[in-house]
Design brief:
The structure holds two protein chains of two kinds. By secondary structure, chain A is mainly α. Helix content of chain A is 79%, strand content 0%. Chain A is extended. The longest helix of chain B is centred in the middle third of the chain and has 25 residues. Chain B has one domain. The chains are: A mainly alpha, B mainly alpha. At the A-B interface, helix 1, helix 2 and helix 3 of A face helix 1, helix 2 and helix 3 of B.
Chain lengths: 180, 89
Amino acid sequence: MDIAILVNFSLLTLMMLVVVVLIRLKSLLGVALTNGIYSLLSAGLFVTMDAVDVAFTEAAVGAGITTVLLLGTIAVTGMEQTVSRHGKFLPLVVIFITGAALIYGTLDMPPFGDPKAPIHTHVAPHYLTESTNEIGIPNVVTSVLASYRGYDTLGEVIVIFTAAIGVLLLLGKTVGKRNK
Amino acid sequence: MFTVTFIAILIVMFFLLIRVALGPTVFDRILAVNTFGTAIVLLIALFGFLVDRPDFLDIALLYALTNFISTIAVLKLFRYKRLGKAADR
């Protein structure tokens, strides 16, 4: 338990340092790469919280695909950051207000891993004990995703399908024209 | 023993971060970021042993695989000046 706190603390400190580096860097290529480090660190944090699937999504999407997308954008736009003209005071105020609101939102949350938290007492026991009788799928996660939240999953699939069609329509057309 | 290794990896990460921040050329940064990914892989593997769950090794291996994606993308960007296709040389 003690060592987990130490790991969490050091990972969060490193993430803070990475953000400072991100702000100071002027080379956009360096920023894209450092962004990957931030994603990897937060993936490590998720691993220590036992959310291995979330951590792997973060590592694959945050550190892998996002870096590639940022690099693709940099290849089109340019390598250096332009100097911003507006003052520094307003962004600081906005950041402090947003941060205070977020911290205020966490105040009445149950502590991490609390077995009496609402998420563990609401429908989770019912899923764990009854899903074999009600659905008949041995894996509880699969029965939650495919049956209890079936409409939700269907909606997600429709959203991803629409996004894929949109991207293909936008990208596929220009490539086709270039080839001619 | 594991704790000492953990602290050593943290110090390595700190120095790598300095190299990313200062690194005069982009290639220093690419190298530092790639090594940072390796350090994260080591950290996750080590965390598995710290909390007595060595099956975290599999996860660490998967991370080692995805760690190459961004490095390959950067190097391709430098070689061909764009990412879209293999391009004419």
